[in-house]
């Protein structure tokens, strides 16, 4: 089954380790904050603080579980620049492999949100004629994102014009 998600004889490029740190930070912040709001409301309104404690315990379990899942998810990401197409793979439980032919690319987009910029990261998204194409590579260093953008744009123009 693994050969279905990995083209033979190619070395996968991996995401920056800073992406793993970013995902862990968002995990540590998101679950406790989202569950603390209802926990405090339940405690104040009903006085049943044991329910609040239960919600905080659930937040703790979510954080601990996701802490380890983030590592496996980070290791699952990879991309390969081949002669005629770009392969992107990711996923642990639900694996995905996307092959985007260079000649079908219409747009190469680089993005970076505030947290990504704080960690020195950017993402590259590829758009094709199909709205179903979900070809995004997150967790790249800005230099790698710029290099990939320029290379994919050049290859897309060359192959789309039939040269």
Helix vs. strand class: alpha+beta
| Largest sheet, spatial ordering of strands | 1-2-3
Strand content: 15-25%
How many distinct helices? Answer: 4
- Indicate the percent of residues in helices: 40-55%
| Main sheet attributes: strand count, strand direction, barrel closure | 3 strands, antiparallel
Tell me the span between the first and last alpha carbons.
36 Å
Which SSEs are present, and which pair or pack?
Elements: H1 17-46, H2 49-76, E1 78-81, E2 85-90, E3 96-101, E4 105-111, H3 114-118, E5 122-128, E6 135-140, H4 142-160
Antiparallel strand pairs: 1-2, 2-3, 4-5, 5-6
Helix pairs in contact: 1-2
Q: Explain this structure to me?
A:
This protein has 163 residues and is of the alpha+beta class. Helix content is 50%, strand content 22%. Strand 2 and strand 3 form a beta hairpin. Helix 1 (17-46) runs antiparallel to helix 2 (49-76). It is elongated, with a radius of gyration of 20 Å. The mean pLDDT is 88.
Short key terms for the protein model shown above:
163 residues, three-stranded antiparallel β-sheet, alpha+beta, single chain, 4 helices
